[in-house]
Amino acid sequence: MKFKLIIFVFIMFLLAPLTINANHHQAPIDKLNQISDEALQMVKSTRYEDAKKLLEYFSNQFLSYTMEDHSFTMDELRIVTVAHNEAVEATTSTSMGHNERINRVTKFRLVIDAVTSTHQPLWTEMEGPIMTVYGGVKEAAINGDNENFHTRFNSFLSLYEVIYPSMKLDLEVEKIQQLDARINFIDHYRPRVLAEAASQAELVALENDLKNIFDEMTEDDADPSLWWVIISTGSIIILTLSYVGFRKYQGERELRREREKNRSRELKD
């Protein structure tokens, strides 16, 4: 029992510094991420004025951060600036619909996550909706359903536009260019895609490209900094189980010895 208590205390000792460091203070980069998320929640709740104030606050914080830390590339700064401007416009426009406002601020939210996160980015969570809509595009094309094809492909383009800036931050230029080429071909030659089996092959190729990209981005989402904790804690658990098994084996062996002694005494008596 004492040994188990010692092991428990030791594990807590190992994990305590991680908890303390995580809660001690919020890093500036994490603060930017949080502000973008709060702005999105404000827009979803139709609190556009509050969202605008948060985006203005973000702008000041982002400028301060970039002046102190020059870790962003020019491409990253450009993409963030464009996404931020579109998000601000979404909170001030009187003619923009609610769904379009959400899409614009979501785009901004995903961009900030892409430049601040080191592991699986949020934009990969859009895989389900995008692949579902795209499946409808392919089905409509195969069936020759003209109206449904145009409607579904336009919906796909709207969703794709939301994650496109974030993808540009995380993917190689060659992959983005390949996606652009396939999407532009399908968009520009819609009548051919509906009428020709050869052109419909581009639909299948684009679907495979999208699947591969999502699969690659979600393959390894574990934080490498946690592996030491996982390995050390796992080792402790294995040692604990081994020790308990060894103690149990020793106890059973002592019990057998005691029984044999008792039997020997009984035989002698």
UniProtKB/TrEMBL annotation:
Entry's transmembrane regions: 226-246
Signal peptide: 1-22
Keyword Heme tagged: no
InterPro entries listed in its UniProt record: Spore_YpjB (IPR014231)
Keyword field: Membrane, Signal, Transmembrane, Transmembrane helix
Top-level taxon: Bacteria
Keyword Transferase among record annotations: no
NCBIfam families given in the database record: spore_ypjB
Protein name: Sporulation protein YpjB
Source organism (scientific name): Cytobacillus spartinae
